[in-house]
Amino acid sequence: MTSVMETRPKKTRAGTRSIRPLARGDRPVEPVIFEKSVPGQRAVDLPPLDVPRVDLPPELIGAPVELPEVGQHDVMTHYTHLSQRNFSVDGNFYPLGSCTMKHNPRINEWAAALDGFAQLHPLQDDDQIQGALRLLYETRCFLQEIAGLDEVSLQPAAGAHGEFTGLKVIRAYFKDIGQPQRHIVLVPDSAHGTNPASCTMCACHAVTVKTAHGYTDLDDLRRLVNEHGANTIAAFMITNPNTAGLFDAKICEAADIMHDAGALLYLDGANMNAILGKTRPGEFGTDVMHFNTHKTFSTPHGCGGPGAGPIAVGDKLAPYLPGPQVMMAEDGSFYFDRDRPKSIGKVRSFSSQFGVLVRCWAYIAACGPDGLRNVAEKAVLSANYLAARLCNVYEMPYFDPQKGRFCAHEFVTVPKSLLGKGVSLNDIAKRMVDYDIHPPTMHWPLRDCLMVEPTDTESKRTLDHFVDVMLQIAQEIERDPKALAEAPTDAPIRRADEVAAARNPVLVWDG
Ligand SMILES: *Cc1c(COP(=O)(O)O)cnc(C)c1O
Prior knowledge:
- The chain has 16 helices and 14 strands.
- It is an alpha/beta fold.
- The longest helix is centred in the C-terminal third of the chain and has 37 residues, at 354-390.
- Residues 1-17 have low confidence and may be disordered.
- Pyridoxal-5'-phosphate is lined by residues 98-99, 158-160, 192, 194, 239, 243, 268, 270, 292, 307, 309.
């Protein structure tokens, strides 16, 4: 396994004082001509005809299709050049807050591609797939241990899907114990958009809880429980560490408020990478949680996939988990248990997002308990290092080392004084592209904020480079804020009309 730095060809020298945006010459040579089709060129030679020739009637053939005519080598260079125009975790610093774009060790890819895993048919009998079942069972046990909870279902295919499944389980539980009227889910105003959406999908009503200084306002939580009536509340759905980059230390109190009301605590575990091996959600009162294995335990993700969102629950909710459940028999063999009368049923075809779980298993097995704790410590250290070096120029509402206020694995900046000089947040983000850095998450959880998450595997050199770039952008704004309105000026694609790109995407090259 190599570290990220070793696999990442760095085109700028990190840590030097004067950084310049990448000039064209620093980039892989651009294809001079995008349109490569030349009439008569072919990428393949078909073997000679070895069956009788048949002439199709013209009405079956239709009009000729205009396909590009390109040689094999040109096809390859075309796609390679296109790939080099992308930002990626393998090529760039990618500090996308909350999304946790972390290093994906190549050995995980190797493991997921092993024939014994990749070529399985999902309908094979249990006795033919003992290795795969063992991997699923062990992943289940790993995640139970990390969660500090009693049973894990590996079925959900993403974090949002885990939320949906967890809420379905909560609904099934309350229905079963004769309290189907509990349909209100309390959600902090800083929550990820999927949280209230999942509530709606499960016929629950999401009610917003205020946050104060980045933390849940417990008085507001109590007020809402009283206002709506304790017996209408199903759960409080909280992300911890939250999207302000803070660990809500009053989580046990929040859990007590829920449990006193007969309701449950749902933990959105998207930020588990900050607390791995440090604390376990089950120990701070969580009844149900989801993991985003693609954020916490590697797997390259983005643009909607791939991921896995296993959920963990305490004993009293376990009977309602989706089935079939992977089990170990007394003789040490593995099987799918389909006899679960109270289960909410399947939430996914077949067993799970299997290839992603192979990567998850490989990551956890390679790290071990000490390694996982190290992941959390390094992630938190990296974020605090960046925040401490930048907070005098980029204002941070929740971070103030003088007052002992630190962050978890990510931090939020609202760069008010820079924005006051006549640039937009978008200008700053687009300028980062010129310096080969992927812009952080924007405008969430606060208006005009950047949410920066460096992850655990970035070297100090990369972190220092990021700081230098951010300080340099601040200087550029001092000198000439208008210049940033053009950014990115050195990227293969200039500033795109993002609204038009989303509403009227042009996906076909028409020469
Ligand atoms: C990413 C994220 C989700 C959604 O997870 P997906 O795997 O993208 O569906 C939910 N909550 C938080 C806080 C997240 O960061």
